[in-house]
Amino acid sequence: MRNPTLPKLTSQGLKLDTSAESFGLLRSSTDVIEDTGDLRERMAEDGYLYLPGYLDRDLVLRARKSVTERLAAEGLTAPGYSADEAVAHPDSGLKFKPDLAHDNEPLHRLLYSGPMMEFYERFLGGPVRHYDFTWMRAVAPGYGTQPHGDIVFMGRGTHDLYTAWTPLGDIDFQLGGLIILEGSHRLRSVREEYLARDVDEYCENLEGEEEYARTNQDTHGWRWDGSVSEDPVELREQLGGRWLTAEYRAGDLLTFDTHTIHASLDNRAERIRLSSDSRYQLASEPVDERWIGEAPVGHGPEGKRGRIC
């Protein structure tokens, strides 16, 4: 049976099967928002919590404004439109732009104070620290993000770590938001193989690999970009479950286990899709050193680590 309300949806340029057996909508957890035990059970079951309207919409829109004004000032939005419309300049080629978070007080207030921190302190049951690095997405029309799990990028500290995906504005199916592969956090084969890897590890016993790793400064590390697949259609067929998403609105919060496989729909609009990824854990737990400090090393040469292959 088809999902009658869904338009044609693509990811990585591939048409997704939107039948009821292969595609669905995220389950809202606003019904259990006041019960921490239920929230934890829901996270264990689903691998995510979708909380429509949890954040202050006005604060989200102020954070959005701080971002769109910077994009316009850099000439990355199309002339003839207001900055807030975020219509992409044809030559922008935007995808990942973390500098938009630097010295951005409205964005930091949204992500690292108030309801966001209160949620994680209650959910995790103690004082929380967030990563100092903020992943800012400014995605121009075109392909979205390939399927992946976050832990392969940030698994050197605690694995009791959670991502907050925060849409900075309304994101309909045309603009294309985040999609989650149902039940993927519980798949043993994925946990024992793909999710056990580290994108910044290299084989120190293989000639030439160490020098390559230390001199390559691509955004996602060296030879492996961290994706589990380049084909979200084939991946779903192999692993089972459904791709899940929603038409998001400013004020929504989607948080998920860093073992949960996710990707994004393609942006088939003319506007830039704006969202942020931020990470939270108990302050008492070990933290991945790549993502803390005034200038986190991230996936640069300092973040590489050798192992015997």
Automatic annotation (TrEMBL):
- A family per Pfam: PhyH
- Which GO terms fall under molecular function for this chain's record? 2-oxoglutarate-dependent dioxygenase activity
Q: Which domain of life is it from?
A: Bacteria
- InterPro entries, alphabetically? Phytyl_CoA_dOase-like
Question: Which sequence ranges are marked TM in the entry?
Answer: none
Q: What is this protein called?
A: Putative dehydrogenases
User: In which organism is this protein found?
Assistant: uncultured Rubrobacteraceae bacterium
